[in-house]
Design goal:
The chain is of the alpha+beta class and about 180 residues long. The protein has one domain (about 20-165): Pnp Oxidase, Chain A, CATH 2.30.110.10. About 15% of the residues lie in helices and about 35% in strands. It contains four helices and eleven strands; from the N terminus they run ββββαβααβββαβββ. Strand 1 (about 20-25) and strand 2 (about 30-35) form a beta hairpin. InterPro entries: Flavin_Rdtase-like_dom, Flavoredoxin, Split_barrel_FMN-bd.
Length: about 180
């Protein structure tokens, strides 16, 4: 098989890091939600998540000020709402109302959980050293929630330019990890 050159501006479409999440924040003007695709696990105990949020995003300033947020993990049934949240700004729109999402109180942070998402991770900002340069926040998960009724969640994964894939087949291989 012969490979050919690939545009550097599209490399991100090859390295999809995980499911799209809905990031919720709290502020003086109420709760907000944004769609985010660029995150990665950094550590397991305590759980640390690295995520990229552009300084052009409304949520960037809210997270920088409050130093907390919730990462809500939707399933494919919420795909239209996820895209809607990604294509609008909370500076102009109440996304909870527009996209029919339900804010529920979190236990350890002011930002809300999204009831319709199968899992929610309450987070506090643990490290900001790369925020100004790269928009890279390190978050510590301080409380995790999951809906036990959802046995095989079909999460959505952003491939770029309006393309998504849905988590599908699962395989099991020998592993020493818990």
């Amino acid at each position: 098989m012969a490979k050919r050159s690939f545009p550097l501006a599209r490399v991100y479409t090859l390295l999809e890091p995980g499911p799209v999440v809905l990031v919720t924040t709290a502020g003086r003007d109420g709760p907000d939600v944004m769609a985010m695709s660029w995150h990665t696990m950094l550590e397991f105990e305590p759980p640390l998540v690295g995520c990229v949020i552009s300084n052009r995003d409304y949520s960037y300033g809210r997270i920088k000020r409050s130093r907390e947020c919730v990462l809500n993990i939707p399933t494919v049934e919420l795909a239209a709402q996820v895209v809607g949240c990604g294509n609008t700004t909370g500076a102009e729109v109440d996304k909870f109302a527009r996209f029919g999402l339900t804010a529920k109180p979190a236990k350890k942070v002011a930002a809300p959980l999204i009831a319709e998402c199968y899992a929610s991770l309450e987070c506090r900002v643990a490290d900001t050293r790369a925020v100004n340069r790269y928009g890279f926040f390190v978050l510590e998960v301080v409380q995790a929630w999951v809906d036990p009724a959802v046995k095989a969640p079909q999460t959505i994964h952003h491939r770029g330019k309006g393309r998504f894939m849905v988590a599908g087949d699962e395989i099991r291989l020998p592993s020493k990890m818990k």
